[in-house]
Design goal:
The protein is mainly alpha-helical and 486 residues long. The protein is built from 20 helices and four strands.
């Protein structure tokens, strides 16, 4: 069925062209507003070739699931038929539903190989974020407790503190030690393989047997094990993701030739055996070199001994982070975070990027005052509703509901956030994980050379700087009449 035929069939199923008020695409769906809800024939819609589902959860509105890419083509053809769109990526309204604005923004973006690759990393790691945050928070609190209760022969640590740190340490170790296994499991789900086999490939990355293999073939460095071409953990999650992608190719090829009666026994064994030799001997060393290069790059900027270099890199990172989020480019940073975590035990890049949310808060406060002066109660209430989430580190309502649709405040928020990023990078604040930001990020900003307590203090100061500078830039750049009728 062509796009034209699909759209015509959908229009018939919703009561005809004359019953349609608007038709808009999101990521996978054609979202339709109708005049007469009773004219919708859900069963007919579900029976159309190319329709994967129907969501009809409120009167006068229905979503027809047709899949990514196709939904945009359907929306474009509706426009050719003279059916207006309710929202468009280039025509989002400030104060509207931020989730709808986000979907419209994403739908309007063109895909390319780089964005597709970065999105793949995001799809793999986003479900792991609860574990990342839990492990990082436990590590951060442990670091704070260790500094507040230093142990010595004359001043032993209270038993209750020892128990608390032991339990917190278990949570952190359970995730961070085996993160390649978790990444491998998720990668297999993403690439269409057997998840437990992907988890096994990721787990193998961390096992001591890799060192034995490396010694036998002469790739191990006894004097400096961390510099070995091949060692346990070499390549980390980057190796696991690429290795599991290769494994899934092997698994599909083996399964296509394997008799059904033998599949469950022999396909997993053959897949792992064929995968492991190139994985251990080729993929792990190569991705290890890439990881080393990334670590050295971070060392040159975020960990530079030159304070000017640190400040400039922090400013640029914080200022450019939100545009990266809006374009979907931030997913690729996950691999860099994990490489830093593996190499340093902490993440130096993330605290500066977390300042971007502070710039949004400052910009929103400036817009609130401008709306108050212009008498725009509606947008003022939207900002008031989104601000608490932004202060706590959940920035999407402010980004997609306020600053990005208005355009200029999105830019001024980034410019202001850069000053906070420059400060925290200058003070070498480091985090135990990534994910939490805003005030909730305080508990993970406990790494770095200044000690846990001072790292948290510097992070909070950086947030305040971002608030102030985001406010100043936005207040000076925005006139009351620009927000009067939005």
């Amino acid at each position: 069925m062509t796009i034209q035929e699909l759209v015509q069939s959908i229009l018939t199923g919703v009561g005809g062209r004359n019953n349609v008020v608007t038709a808009t695409n999101c990521m996978t769906r054609l979202r339709i507003n109708v005049k007469d809800d009773g004219a919708i024939n859900e069963e007919a819609l579900k029976g159309i070739e190319g329709v994967m589902g129907v969501v009809h959860d409120r009167t006068g509105y229905i979503e027809v699931v047709v899949g990514p890419g196709k939904c945009r083509k359907c929306s474009d053809y509706c426009k050719e038929l003279g059916i207006p769109a309710a929202a468009d990526g280039a025509d989002m309204t400030a104060g509207g539903d931020w989730q709808a604005n986000k979907a419209a923004m994403k739908a309007g973006q063109k895909e390319n190989k780089i964005k597709s690759m970065l999105k793949t990393f995001g799809d793999i790691f986003v479900p792991l974020i609860p574990g990342v945050i839990a492990a990082g928070l436990c590590a951060g609190i442990n670091t704070l407790l260790g500094q507040l209760f230093p142990g010595s022969e004359t001043n032993p640590v209270p038993a209750a503190i020892v128990l608390i740190t032991a339990f917190l340490g278990l949570v952190n170790t359970a995730f961070m030690t085996y993160i390649p296994a978790w990444a491998g499991y998720r990668a297999a789900e993403k690439f269409g393989g057997t998840p437990v086999l992907g988890g096994m490939v990721g787990m193998i990355t961390t096992l001591g047997g890799i060192d034995t293999i490396s010694k036998v073939i002469g790739l191990y460095n006894e004097a400096q094990p961390l510099d070995a071409i091949l060692r346990a953990g070499r390549g980390g999650v980057l190796a696991a993701v690429i290795g599991v992608w290769f494994m899934c190719k092997i698994e599909k090829a083996v399964r296509s030739k394997m008799p059904d009666a033998l599949d469950i026994v022999f396909t997993p064994v053959i897949t792992l055996i064929v995968t492991l030799v190139p994985y251990v001997l080729i993929i792990m060393p190569i991705t290890g070199l890439i990881s080393t290069g990334l670590v050295n790059l971070v060392g040159l900027v975020a960990m530079s001994t030159n304070p000017v270099v640190r400040a400039v890199s922090g400013y640029l990172g914080a200022a450019l982070f939100l545009p990266m989020v809006a374009m979907g480019m931030h997913h690729g940073l996950v691999a860099l975070y994990t490489v830093q975590k593996d190499a340093f035990g902490c993440v130096y890049l993330y605290p500066a990027l977390a300042m971007a949310g502070g710039g949004q808060v400052g910009a929103a406060l400036a817009l609130y005052l401008k709306c108050k002066k212009a008498g725009n109660t509606r947008l003022k209430n939207v900002i008031a509703g989104a601000l608490p989430a932004g202060i706590l580190g959940v920035g999407e309502p402010l980004i997609y509901g306020v600053t990005l649709p208005l355009g200029k405040p999105f830019i001024t928020a980034g410019l202001g956030a850069g000053f906070g990023g420059a400060f925290v990078n200058l003070m070498q604040v480091a985090s135990t994980t990534w994910g939490p930001s805003g005030l909730l990020g305080c508990f993970v900003m406990t790494a770095g050379p200044s000690g846990a307590v001072m790292s948290v203090v510097y992070f909070v100061i950086g947030l305040v700087i971002s608030y102030i500078m985001g406010f100043i830039f936005t207040y000076l750049a925005t006139k009351p009449e620009e927000v009067a009728n939005i």
